[in-house]
Write a structure and sequence with these properties.
Elements lengths: L31 E5 L3 E4 H14 L5 E4 L5 E5 L12 E9 L4 E6 L3 H12 L6 E5 L1
Antiparallel strand pairs: 1-6, 1-7, 2-5, 3-6, 4-5
Helix pairs in contact: 1-2
Length: about 130
């Protein structure tokens, strides 16, 4: 008798809680960085909110690098639609982030200002983050 198969919770690319990042884990451009400690999907609006928090706090001094780009399309079906009829419409673009990924880097400002700006940006993102220094 065949074994009963349970529902697989890793459908739709959601194996986020098992992986560790292998690329983009070290500082490449600046002396300060914001590193992801957990995994999640981050969309473009969240990235822009974090970028604005950084640039507003540092008064547009120094330089900021965004190390992630949302290039994974997410589709969604309208409510109360029956099965069949094809794939749903495009909802948004996201970037899957795993623990260890550098999200933002900055340079050209004082260490205290850089750490505070990156801490504020971390609050805008759906992942736990840590500020790292080269």
């Amino acid at each position: 008798m065949p074994k009963k198969v349970k529902h697989r919770k890793w459908q739709k690319g959601r194996s986020l809680n098992r992986k560790m990042e292998t690329r983009g884990t070290t500082l490449a451009y600046g002396n300060f960085g914001l590193k992801a400690e957990t995994s999640a999907w981050i969309n473009g609006r969240q990235i822009e909110a974090a970028r604005r928090a950084i640039s507003n706090f540092i008064k547009r001094e120094g330089k900021v690098w965004i190390r992630i780009f949302p290039d994974k399309p997410i589709t969604e079906r309208p409510p109360e639609v029956t099965m069949g009829g094809g794939k749903g419409d495009l909802k948004e673009f996201v970037v899957p982030v795993y623990p260890g990924r550098i999200l933002f880097e900055m340079d050209g400002v004082a260490p205290e200002i850089a750490k505070e700006a990156l801490r504020l940006a971390g609050y805008k993102l759906p992942v736990k983050t840590r500020v790292i220094v080269k």
